[in-house]
Design goal:
alpha/beta; Rossmann fold; 5-stranded parallel beta sheet; 6 helices; binds 4'-phosphopantetheine
């Protein structure tokens, strides 16, 4: 049984992420989407919200599990019994950081293999950061996230704006 662990912040889960989960599901017996919990970052969505949203978006894809992890990725690989790490490469600009991360992980644990997959062209410019930015500024973001995520993100933005306005 081959398991790939797909780590990330997923704040929020986008069509680019979903694309990779679907593609990886064709190659591996099990895909574990692993949400990194980093106390130094202040995400828009809590870990529980991100987990619920990913589970909702992936509910029709077989053999997908969603987990959260703290600390080192190489420890999460052991904990969840994964054979490899999956990361997406959208553009050349992603490559340097991804290569550094893959090499660091292999330096920390010799057996840690990283597999890179590319999304479809229409998802190649989509990032969580940009989705949040355009959504916060009032643009239609529905083309960049799975349909199930649209009302969840819209509600979060309304909640944030209400808080900002002190209501
Ligand atoms: O979606 P992101 O923010 O690009 O994901 C980055 C992530 C979470 C995969 C990376 O920061 C990570 O693996 N964090 C866990 C801590 C760790 O193991 N760091 C050392 C490897 S660089």
């Amino acid at each position: 049984m081959k398991t790939v662990l797909y780590p990330g912040s997923f704040d929020p889960f986008t069509n680019g992420h979903l694309d990779l989960v679907v593609r990886a599901g064709r190659l591996f017996d099990r895909v574990i989407v692993a949400i990194a919990v980093n106390s130094q970052k202040s995400p828009m969505f809590t870990m529980e919200e991100r987990k619920a949203l990913i589970e909702l978006c992936c509910r029709e894809i077989p053999h997908v599990q969603v987990v959260a992890f703290r600390g080192l990725l190489v420890d999460a690989i052991e904990e969840f019994g994964a054979n490899a790490v999956l990361r997406g490469l959208r553009a050349f600009s992603d490559f340097e950081y991804e290569l550094q991360m893959a090499l660091m992980n292999r330096s920390l644990r010799h057996s840690c293999e990283t597999i890179f997959m590319t999304p479809t062209q229409e998802n190649s410019f989509v990032s969580s950061h940009m989705v949040k930015e355009v959504a916060m500024l009032g643009a239609d973001f529905s083309a960049y996230v799975p349909p199930a995520a649209v009302p969840v993100i819209a509600a979060k933005i309304r909640e944030m704006k209400r808080k900002e306005e002190g209501k």
